[in-house]
Amino acid sequence: MAFQLGASLLEACVLALLEREDTYGYILTQNIRSVIEISESTLYPVLRRLQKEECLSTYDMPCQGRNRRYYQITPTGLERLEHYRMDWTEYKNKVDLVLSGGKEHECK
Questions:
Q1: Which one, 57, 90, 95, 100, has the greatest CB density within 10 A?
Q2: pLDDT tens figures, 20-29
Q3: What stretch of H or E contains 32?
Q4: Distances 70 to 3, 21, 25, 28 between C-alpha atoms, Å
Q5: Could you tell me the residue range of the domain that residue 52 belongs to?
Q6: pTM of the full predicted structure?
Q7: Is 92 part of any domain?
Q8: What is the largest distance, in Å, between two alpha-carbon atoms of the chain?
Q9: How many other C-beta atoms can be found within 10 angstroms of the C-beta atom of residue 11?
Q10: For residue 10, which of 31, 54, 59, 2 has the smallest C-alpha distance?
């Protein structure tokens, strides 16, 4: 894809995936990779930042003799996701208008 992924858009994608279900980092990376090329080394700092900002919480579950860290969206994360969705809709509509050749404001 030719378009760059900003930090806010990546956060929005992470929060949207976690709104559906709790999951662990590897699965999050794979789900995001289905639409955007991203490495685990890019994702984990985002997860830590969202956790520090109380948008995510974590818990561990045993899996094949080891613990797997799961991420879960918090009420604060749900609020942020809603803001991201509103911002995305506004941004997308403006870009669609420009790309389709429309004009938002005409000079007279």
A1: 57
A2: 999 999 999 9
A3: helix 25-33
A4: 30, 10, 7, 10
A5: 7-99
A6: 0.84
A7: yes
A8: 71
A9: 20
A10: 31
